[in-house]
Structures are given as structure tokens and as C-alpha cells.
Amino acid sequence: LITSHFLKIAFPVESCSEYEQISFVCHPWRIIDGSLNKPVCKGMIEALLYHIMSKPGITEQKLLSYYSAVLQPVIILEMLQALKAIGCIRKRYLTRAKPTSLFSPPTGATEVQSCKLSERLTVFYEPTIDCVLRLGNVFPHEPNWNKWIQ
Hints:
Layout: E1 6-12, E2 19-25, H1 38-54, E3 58-59, H2 60-66, H3 73-86, E4 89-95, E5 111-112, E6 121-127, H4 131-138
Helix pairs in contact: 1-3
């Protein structure tokens, strides 16, 4: 039985009538035995960080739509959360401007410090100044995921 992010496999135990159920969380950077595939993990996180670095202030929605053909949104959100935890990016929120009329004063979007689920906010990401150095400390001795690029 395969669900969205879990693979459940039943293996026979000692007798044929009993089965042991094992759950496996499917992520592109995990090997089937559950260990971390470091080159793939490094390559995916680097690619996402470099995308944010090349377009500072990119919205979460644009990131999700850019990678939608190859990755599930949950995977992208997990990588963004990891980059934020490392200190490579900052997650920021903007409130949408209220609708204006012909005679209303001009208003812009304002930044919000805390996020409430009931509010409709635009989430965007900015790289930190030392993001490359911080990411380099996570996988210091790991070779490039593409063995043909040195």
C-alpha cells in the first residue's frame, strides 16, 4: 500500500500467517534502507539556495510552482525549513494591500513579524549574507553530487 509520503511493506515473520509492518518515509535524499544519501541531499539543498540567491525575495508560491514538475511541495517546504534552520535564508511575510479606490491614498504592502493562519500573507525568502559559508559547514567533506563537475 503506497500513500502520499509513506511506503508500507509487509514482511513475513517466523510463521506465514504473521507479518511485520514497516513504514518508510519517501524522500529523494533517503536511500531505501533509511540512510541519508549525502550527495543528493547536498545537491538539492544547494540548488534551492542558489535559486533563492539568484532571485532574492522570491515568493514561496513561485518556488513551489517552479519545482512542481519534479518535486512535491512538501519536499520543497522541508528543504526551505532546513535552510532556515541552518541560517542560510530568512522567511518573511507581507500583508496584502487593501483594495484602493480612485480617491484613496496610495498604500503598499507591509511586513508582518508574526504569522497567523487566518491571515492571507505573501511568504517570501531572502538569503543571508553568510549563507554559502553556513551551507558549506553542513557538508564540509562531501564531494559534489555530480561527479563530472569538479
